[in-house]
């Protein structure tokens, strides 16, 4: 379960191609997993591991932390799977767990770093000079999460609202602001390249 990460290490996190949105699991597999069938749960892990890792990476900006978050998310999912009633899509439920794990992991990591280096500013994560990452850096956390869930993972507005625990109208508002901020960031990067191009 934990070590099969090569499938996503070689793929830089980015926009998910349309037509490859996160799918629901086979109902029979999900039912068996809820009944404690480990093989069925392993099937769920294989189906969703890459997506959970990519989501965790986008939140933590750190590959090692993303691995930890992914592990923790599936452990929690296994513990609480019997309580999943199907009120939302399984993928939405799993992403919500992954988001909570990422928040807990980043909080713990920040506290550890602050304790080790109390007088030093703690960076928010490893900086990547990829255009999408630079644009995402310009978007606040509240607006980054719905953008990732909708544009990268293909969730609907309602599913994203379920993951984040907010109303659909709030998701739409945050998406509008996120897109506006990203467009501004990308435009700023383009102007910067033009300014330095003639130097």
Mean pLDDT, rounded to whole units? 76
Report the portion of residues in β strands: under 5%
Percent of residues in helices: 55-70%
The CATH superfamily of the largest domain is identified as: RNA polymerase sigma factor, region 2, helix turn helix motif
Q: Give the number of helices.
A: 9
Q: What is the number of beta strands?
A: 0
- What is the fold-level CATH name, i.e. the topology of the largest domain? Rna Polymerase Sigma Factor, Chain: A
**Series of H and E elements:** HHHHHHHHH
Strand count, sense and barrel status of the largest sheet are: none
Number of domains: 2
If you compute it from the alpha carbons, what radius of gyration comes out, rounded to the nearest whole angstrom?
Answer: 18 Å
Class from helix and strand fractions: mainly alpha
CATH class of the largest domain: Mainly Alpha
- CATH architecture classification name of the largest domain: Orthogonal Bundle
- What is the end-to-end distance? 52 Å
Oligomer: single chain
Low-pLDDT sequence parts: 2-20, 120-130, 193-199
């Amino acid at each position: 379960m934990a070590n099969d990460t090569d499938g996503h290490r070689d793929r830089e996190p980015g926009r998910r191609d349309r037509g490859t949105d996160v799918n629901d699991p086979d109902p029979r597999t999900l039912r068996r997993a809820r009944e404690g069938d480990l093989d069925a749960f392993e099937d769920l892990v294989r189906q969703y591991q890459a997506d959970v890792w990519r989501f965790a990476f986008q939140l933590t900006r750190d590959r090692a932390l993303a691995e930890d978050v992914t592990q923790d998310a599936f452990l929690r999912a296994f513990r609480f799977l019997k309580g999943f009633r199907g009120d939302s899509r399984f993928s939405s439920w799993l992403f919500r767990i992954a988001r909570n794990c990422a928040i807990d992991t980043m909080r713990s990591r920040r506290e550890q770093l602050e304790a080790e280096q109390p007088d030093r500013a703690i960076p928010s994560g490893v900086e990547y000079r990829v255009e999408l990452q630079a644009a995402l850096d310009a978007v606040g956390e509240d607006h980054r999460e719905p953008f990732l869930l909708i544009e990268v993972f293909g969730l609907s507005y309602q599913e994203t609202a379920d993951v984040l625990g907010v109303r659909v109208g709030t998701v739409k508002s945050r998406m509008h602001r996120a897109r506006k901020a990203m467009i501004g960031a990308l435009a700023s990067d383009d102007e910067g390249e033009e300014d330095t191009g003639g130097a």
